[in-house]
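Here's a chain:
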Amino acid sequence: MKKLAIISAGFTAIAALGITGGCSGDPETALPPVTPHAMFERLPYTAEAPPDNPMTDEKIELGHKLYFEPKLSRSGIISCNTCHVVGAAGVDHRAIAIGEGARLGRRNSPTVFDSAFLKMQFWDGRAETLEEQAKLPIQAHEEMDLTPEEAVTRLSRTGYMPYFKKAFPDEDKPLTFENIAKAIATFERTLISRNAPFDQYLDGQYDALNEKELAGMILFQNGCIICHQGPLLGGDRIMPFDALGGDDRGVGELTGNPADDYHFRVSPLRNVALTYPYMHDGSVETLEEAVDLMAETQLHRVYSDEEREQVTAFLRALTGKFPEIIHPLLPRDRHR
């Protein structure tokens, strides 16, 4: 692609960083005004299910109900949706989530949207799959605080057995804790945000991003992309991050290895404009503050006001369209 020194007055100072010539006419031959980095990927429209947990309509329906089911918490008040609100970009907008008995956890609740594409779950990457992830909050003392046996008993007494039989028709005992997790994970694989302006741009719709967003993409590609890449722009690796201090040692608490202290999963950036507050402890309130913090601590540079506006404009262009998720009708056995 032929580099242009200048494509507009607004891009004069940054043209040399990656702006290429655009052209009108046939969209198949048009050149993008800024060449997307090779490590960018379009977000897929669907998520692939593991061989041992294929997606079916019946399993999605069951998982939808279980995601909103408060009986999976000891008090009967808290559900998955309490901390990962599907109507609020998949988060609760609290610095730290509040669980059973008003107990506080230690980390910010990450979004459930697009989590099907994560290479690892949780801030410390302790789970590889959604199935593994779904089991842990139900059992965590500070979150939902149930044993697997209690969860199964509660659902069997509430009227869930017919739904489990439909979702797992080949099993003699379909209502198990393992299948609870499988159903929730199956539903979560449908929670995909689609058609962000950034994806439209990757598809060749070059008017989907304006000049400020494109300038921000150039800045992003010249630093942030070292860690934030792939379809989620993050979420696929563990990196050191000790800028916040505190007693949360991240991966080091799992491994017991001091070399792993203050290592955390790189945050995915899809819909990041809507998933505030930021960082593993939820201590950063705004996107602008987060951009400044990461620039200073990870890139060792200070953005100008204009550069900050450009980067945050690009990050806002990562906001997709969310599926409409209604609160389901939950089974309730009136005889119990």
